[in-house]
Every structure is written in C-alpha cells, then in structure tokens.
Amino acid sequence: MPRPISGRIITMRLPLSKDNFATIISVYAPTMTNPDENKETFYNRLASVLSGIPRTDKLLLIRDLNARIGRENDKWPLVMGKHGIGKCNSNGELLMALCSEFELIVTNTMFKQKDERKTTCMHPCSRHWHMIDFIITRYRDKMDIHSTRAMRGANCWTDHQMLRSKVRFRIQQKHNRQGTSKLTKLNTAKLSSISHRESFEQEMDNALANGRRRKTQHQTRNGQFCSRSYTTQPRHILASQTETTRTGSTPTTRNYRLL
Predict the structure, then answer these.
(1) 97: which residues sit within 8 A by CB, 6+ positions away?
(2) Within 13 A of 125's CA, how many CA atoms are on the CB side?
(3) Is residue 135 within 8 Å of residue 62, measured between CB atoms?
(4) How far is it, in rounded angstroms, from Cα 121 to Cα 128?
(5) What global pTM score does this model have?
(6) What confidence tens digit (pLDDT) does each residue in 25-40 have?
(7) Under a CB-based contact definition with an 8 Å cutoff, are residues 164 and 149 in contact?
(8) Nearest CA-CA partner of 97 in 143, 39, 17
(9) Do 118 and 129 contact (CB within 8 A), yes or no?
(10) Is residue 55 within 8 Å of 76, Cβ to Cβ?
C-alpha cells in the first residue's frame, strides 16, 4: 500500500518475486520561487527516505522534481546521460547532488530522441518547453530501463505531459543446479583407532578382490569397475557427514510499463 511520508513524498513497495521488491517514490519538489529552507527540508527528507530503502530493492524515483538539469553531463557523468536539454538551474544542482550521493541516474537523458519527447512542461511566461519531470533509478539497474519519453497528446488534465518508461526488471533467483549430488566427507582421524584401521584395510582388500574378478569377467576398460569398487565401498567406514553442492543463480525478468 502507498505510504505517505509528507505532503510532497509518498512511497510504495511492490513484490516482484518471493525475495525481491521494487520501491517507487513519487515526489513533488518545491519550485524555484520557494524559499531555500523549504528546498533544504524537502531534499533532506528525501535523502532520509532513500537511506531507508534496502540496497537489494529495485528503485524508481518519479514525478515532478521542478528542476532543470541541462544537457552537459561532464560534471555528472554517472548521474545523467548525454541526451539532456536546456541549461541547469539551482534546483537541478540539488537534484544532481542527491543522485550522486545515492548512485542514481536520470533515465530521461539516456536515450537519443527528439526534444519534444524529452520536455514535459511549458513555462507560462517564456512559452519554452522544459524537462522538469523525471524517472530516476539506480545506476547499477540502468539496463532495466528500455525507454523513457514524454507522451505528447495524452489527456492527463494537467499542464505537464505524461512521462512513460518501459521497464524490464532483471531478478536473480537462486535454485539448485541440475544433477547435484551429495558429497561425503571422510573423517581420516578415525584411522588412529586400531579397530577402524583394521576394518578399513579389510574392506579395501575385499573391494580390490571384487574389482579384479569383475575386470576379468566383463573386460572393462581403464579399470572402471575396479576403481569404482575400492573408492566407494569402504567409504562408510570413514564417513562423517554429507553436504550438497553449492547453488547457482540465473536471471529472470519481469516486464513493467510505467506511466
């Protein structure tokens, strides 16, 4: 369920699989005309929310940040792509600093497309279009985002254009490898006991004798039956415990479309 943090921040945590989650943070940042104290309070609260999100969660920071980040990514190469627009303002600097602190990237700037598909709001006085709405994710998960673009013509009953992102989460799921087998550990310390050592020697002699008879009868090659006999039959004498082979992981995907 959505969890309101303040009048400007709301979060929601969605399950993707048994042990994987995605956290979505929707925000409405203060505009340029707001006092600096309001902006500082907002970004401090947002930083506190980001700090509380588990590192394993997929993360999407979305909606109206009221910031212009510009097109020059030389200062923030890991925070924004090469396809921004316009110039950066003071709110943009605050947003870039936050993204840099939490290793986030602005997905709007990752894709080469027409300017009309980047901008989301028109300034009422200058009548210029600007990019002030964003979809932001972790830098490590940037390959999960396949596109982010403004949807011109969508009737949203607002002066902002709809921003759509195609997301395909990659999820690591653990499972047992095919053909796993139990491995037996041998407790060689038992050989210090005379009774155990004599029993082991007797079992080895019997196994070797059986192996020679099988080799003669079946004419196996490379001593297959012989080696298998004397390595497996006496094993129970020294057995202490068993363990399974380690598990592996393979990526699975979940497809989502964020509007």
Answers:
(1) none
(2) 0
(3) yes
(4) 8
(5) 0.68
(6) 999 999 999 999 999 9
(7) yes
(8) 39
(9) no
(10) no
